[in-house]
Design a protein that fits this description.
Layout lengths: L2 E4 L2 E4 L4 E7 L9 E6 L6 E6 L6 E3 L7 E6 L4 E6 L8 E8 L11 E4 L3 E6 L1
Parallel strand pairs: 2-11
Antiparallel strand pairs: 1-3, 3-8, 4-5, 4-9, 5-6, 7-8, 9-10, 9-11
Length: about 120
């Protein structure tokens, strides 16, 4: 499986962006997926996760109510809709596939990673 993230860019505070993560391979729909982000000088952190069927989602407190994760298994794609963006959301965003059957919140629980897409939020 390979993951390709896209949709990043420069946006003003309060604006919106939608990230996409396209997966190759036949096993996409069998695994939970997650989004992580890494800001300059900081550790990579969990942002959101979604179960294999899309019924269950999990969010970091810092994005809850502003970001929405979703997936379309027919298109092998997971999305991250980001609204009410803040300068502190500036980071490289990575999509990842879980190595297990649950939505993990730690990097070690994911074994396939995309290349990252940069989101910059100006104040």
């Amino acid at each position: 499986v390979q993951l390709q993230a896209s949709g990043g860019g420069l946006v003003q505070a309060g604006g919106s962006l939608r990230l996409s993560c396209a997966a190759s391979g036949r096993t996409f729909s069998s695994y939970p997926m997650g989004w992580f982000r890494q800001a300059p000088g900081k550790e990579r952190e969990f942002v959101a996760g979604i179960s294999w069927g899309g019924a269950t989602t999990n969010y970091a407190d810092s994005v809850k109510g502003r970001f929405t994760i979703s997936r379309d298994n027919a298109k092998n794609t997971v999305y991250l809709q980001m609204n009410s963006l803040k300068p502190e959301d500036t980071a490289v965003y990575y999509c990842a596939r879980s190595s297990g059957s649950y939505i993990g919140r730690y990097q070690a629980e994911y074994n396939v990673w995309g290349q990252g897409t940069l989101v910059t939020v100006s104040s």
